[in-house]
Amino acid sequence: MHRPKMILIDLDGTLVDSVPDLAFCVDAMLARLGRAPRGEAAVRTWVGNGLERLVRRALIGQLDGEPEESDYRLAHPIFLELYADNACNRSALYPGVREGLDFLKSAGYPLGCITNKAAQFTEPLLKHLGLWNDFGLVVSGDTLPRRKPDPLPLLHAASHFGVAPHDALMIGDSVNDVQAARAAGFGIVCTSYGYNHGQDIRDARPDAVIDSFVELRELIGQD
Fold first, then answer.
1. Which of 36, 101, 212, 223 sits CB 3.0–4.6 Å from 96 for a disulfide?
2. What are the sequence ranges of the domains in the chain?
């Protein structure tokens, strides 16, 4: 693989398994609304397009479709209130992430975190898990006018670091990351785990798929 001059990394489903916290908040929200819980397995197939989309999916119990707008307007603030107190309580780094980030830093790669999660939840999660200081730039879902799969966050990061898109690499877990990277002219590596609505990420045809961040040492090297 072409050695990049900058690496951008997605957060949820790539660095961090945040579904346990999200599922807790979904079920607590539904309980307040007098509805049955959905459970972690279902929530795991719904995440990846922002919290608003997750709340809408939770209300109807499926990936596609829309709830009654009045139901959403009632549910969304409840979810945000719950998540503000539970963004970091059950989330954890995936195995190999810490080792992989340490390698990337030691190899001198400028690193950015590009996520669709709102900034009010991104910063506490990164700090709680000891990731905040790993990144020279963090772009959250509400930092810019558009978010992934739009290429704007990736191009913004490339400009920040002074790197041409063809010298940049995105690491993510979903088709959103693949689409954003392709539109921006980046290379794209995806994790085999993470959140892609139950679909095999290989179907999106990234440049490479890894099972662990420790594989980055062999994939892109140091020289």
1. 212
2. 6-17+91-220, 19-84
Q: What is the separation of C-alpha 90 from the centre of its chain, rounded to a whole number of angstroms?
A: 16
* CB 175 within 8 Å of CB 199: yes
From the list 10, 17, 21, 27, the catalytic residue is 10
Out of 3.40.50.1000, 3.20.20.70, 1.10.275.10, 2.60.120.10, which CATH number does the structure's domain 6-17+91-220 have?
3.40.50.1000
Q: Is 10 a catalytic residue?
A: yes
Query: Rounded CA gap, 56 and 58, in Å?
Result: 5
**Is the confidence at residue 175, as pLDDT, over 80?**
yes
Collapsing DSSP to helix, strand or coil, 111 comes out as strand
- Give the residue numbers of the binding site: 10, 12, 173
* Better-predicted residue by pLDDT, 2 or 1: 2
